Structures are given as C-alpha cells and as structure tokens.
From TrEMBL:
<dbReference type="GO" id="GO:0015173">
    <property type="term" value="F:aromatic amino acid transmembrane transporter activity"/>
</dbReference>
<feature type="transmembrane region" description="Helical">
    <location>
        <begin position="186"/>
        <end position="208"/>
    </location>
</feature>
<feature type="transmembrane region" description="Helical">
    <location>
        <begin position="34"/>
        <end position="56"/>
    </location>
</feature>
<feature type="transmembrane region" description="Helical">
    <location>
        <begin position="374"/>
        <end position="396"/>
    </location>
</feature>
<feature type="transmembrane region" description="Helical">
    <location>
        <begin position="7"/>
        <end position="28"/>
    </location>
</feature>
<feature type="transmembrane region" description="Helical">
    <location>
        <begin position="220"/>
        <end position="241"/>
    </location>
</feature>
<dbReference type="GO" id="GO:0003333">
    <property type="term" value="P:amino acid transmembrane transport"/>
</dbReference>
<dbReference type="InterPro" id="IPR013061">
    <property type="entry name" value="Trp/try_permease_CS"/>
</dbReference>
<feature type="transmembrane region" description="Helical">
    <location>
        <begin position="306"/>
        <end position="325"/>
    </location>
</feature>
<keyword id="KW-0812">Transmembrane</keyword>
<comment type="similarity">
    <text>Belongs to the amino acid/polyamine transporter 2 family. Mtr/TnaB/TyrP permease subfamily.</text>
</comment>
<feature type="transmembrane region" description="Helical">
    <location>
        <begin position="272"/>
        <end position="294"/>
    </location>
</feature>
<keyword id="KW-1003">Cell membrane</keyword>
<comment type="function">
    <text>Involved in transporting aromatic amino acids across the cytoplasmic membrane.</text>
</comment>
<protein>
    <recommendedName>
        <fullName>Aromatic amino acid permease</fullName>
    </recommendedName>
</protein>
<feature type="transmembrane region" description="Helical">
    <location>
        <begin position="149"/>
        <end position="166"/>
    </location>
</feature>
<dbReference type="InterPro" id="IPR018227">
    <property type="entry name" value="Amino_acid_transport_2"/>
</dbReference>
Amino acid sequence: MNKSKIFGSTLIIAGTTIGAGMLALPLASAGLGFTTSLTIMLALWALMAYTALLMVEIHQHADKEATLHTLAKQFLGTKGKWVASFAMMFLFYALCAAYIAGGGAQFAERITGFTGVTVSSTAATVLFTVIVATVVTIGTGTVDKVNRVLFLTKIVVMALVLTFLAPNVTESYLLSMPVEQGLVVAAIPVIFTSFGFHGSIPAIVNYLDGHTPSLRKAIVIGSAIPLIVYIFWQVVTLGVVNQSTLLDNQGLSALINTLATTVHQSNLGQTIGVFADLALLTSFLGVSLGLFEFLGDSLSKGGKPYSRVATGLITFVPPMGFALFYPQGFIMALGYAAIALVILAIFLPIMMVRKVRVQAQEHHYQVIGGNSGLIVGTIVGVVIVSAQVLITVGVLPSLG
C-alpha cells in the first residue's frame, strides 16, 4: 500500500477530529480538574478507536465504496438505513448550530476589534452564517480552497498558542479535583463529541482500497494525534487558570479573555481568538458541506438536481435559528450532537458487526474484545445518551 495514501488518510482522520470541539474541552472540564478529564478522554478515545475498527471489520463484507447508509441498509435493512440517515442529519444540524452559536459571538468581537463598530450579536450571527453559506453554496471546490488556507493557518496559530501558554502552567491547578460528582457525568457527552471522525471512515476505506492493515494504522494513529493535542491543550488551559475562575467565566469568549488576562500577554487574547475563529470555521465548513450535499442528494427527485440556493436555505436557516434563540448554546448543541454521534459511531457499528459475525462465511479480520467488547461499548453509549437526557431535564448540571 502507498505510504503517501496512508499518511494522507491519517491526516484526514486527525483533521476531521481536531476542530471546534477542542474549544469546548476546557469549558466542559472546568469543574472536573485535569486528572479526571484526562481519564475520561483516554477512555472515550479508546472507545471511538475501537468502534472505528469495527467499521473496518464491517467493510470487509461490503463494497469498498459503500457509505454508512448503504452499510446500514445491507446489514440492518430499510429501518437501519432510516435510523442512520436521521442520526446523520441530526448530528450535522446540531454541530452547525453549535458552530454558528460560537462563531457568531466571536465574529461580533472580531468586527468590533478591527473596525471599532459595535455590532449586535444577532447581526453578527446572521452575517457569519451568510458568509459561510455563500462559500458552501458556490461549491465544494471553493470550500476546498478556503479550507486549505484556514487549516494550515490554524495549525501554525495553535502551535503559537501552546507556546504562549505552556510557561505559565501552575502545577497546583492541574491537581484540582471535581467540584461535584454530577459534573463528571455531565461532561462526558461534550468530551465524547470531540473525538468524532466516523463520518469520514467510508471515504478512507475507499481511498485505501479496503486494505485492512493500512486502515487499522491510519485509524489508530489518526485518532491518537488529536488525543495528544487535546492533552496538551488541557494542560495549558486548566493549568493556567484556577478552577473557580474557569467556572465563573463559562462561554467561549469568556474563556479566551480569561486566558489572556491571566497570562498578561497583550497579543495572546488576539492569538487565541484567531485560533478559535479558525477552529470554528474549518469545522463549520466541513460539517455544513456534508449536510448540504446530504440534503441536496436527498431532495433531488428523478435525477433532477435540487436548487443549490434552496438547499442552502434548508441547510443553514434551522441551525441559525437555534443560534439566534440560544446565543450561548455552543456547549448545549454539542451535547445534543453527542446523542446522534452515539447512534452513528457506537450503536450502528456494534449492531452491524453482530450481524456480520453471525452471517459471514469467513472472517479475515475481527476486532479484539469479542462479545464483551460489544457489550461494554453498548453500555458506554447508553451512559452518554442518558447523561445528555438527564442534563436536558435538569437532573444533571448543564455546562458552558
């Protein structure tokens, strides 16, 4: 197998994972302390890598060009296909809502900072959405060109942010313990969402011609890179600001201002702000393009293409409406996205692999863990969904 293709696939997985969810980690972990959040991150990374490998096992028994919907229909029937389609759409909409909510607030501050003109959060949110919607509606080629520049810039700025913050880490801050036990469970859905990359697996399988050893390498390494980046990010955020200050300054803008004020670096606030902007934009472009193409394909009838403008309106208006009604809904929307991600990344792979292991005549590759691994994965999935439901009804504390 071409090493360049494996390397490229590894970066696609890492790039898909590292996005705006990274910005939510310090907010979700504020009441946990570094050690507890690290334990949760390691466990959820292992789970997501495991279920991604389950997808590789499933793909051995399907066409290498099969999408998630095709796989769901092949192994779980028409109902499985509808569940996969609904979960995919719910996930895309929830993520878009989160990125518009976070991006709108950031955009308002950026306009004020560069022009001195104060813009309402509503106007900034609408303008931010219109700009991204225009790029996506024009076409994938435009998104690709814009995204390349943004992604490369994001990596450089992220390195600068980590360099700025690292010397200011205080060991005692990293030793903080959870403020209350409910926060530990409440943080799980948001942290879980930060490790989602399963939507890209069918494309990677096709790109690597279904070559199992290459796929395993790309998935394990590609998912481990974000884990390492997240650990460094948690060290330099939770280690720079004390726990009580983080809890008192929830919200993306507040987090950025708190970090800049604590470190006393005049340029740090702007640098972190630029990184946050880039993380939101790259994530938003990728997710909204996926939703746009999914809806465009679903709405096309008789082979006749659906209007791109109409598809754009259906893609962007609902999540923008959420962001306008809940301008502080960044963390909330990521929590809801976790429910759909559990279905797509845990429940569906486990259900399909059960079918595969019963029906298949021969097994070329089978993920370790057997039935015990499938049971544990299912239990964790139920815990994540239950946590988000309990947050929604007010039993568990809400974050952000």
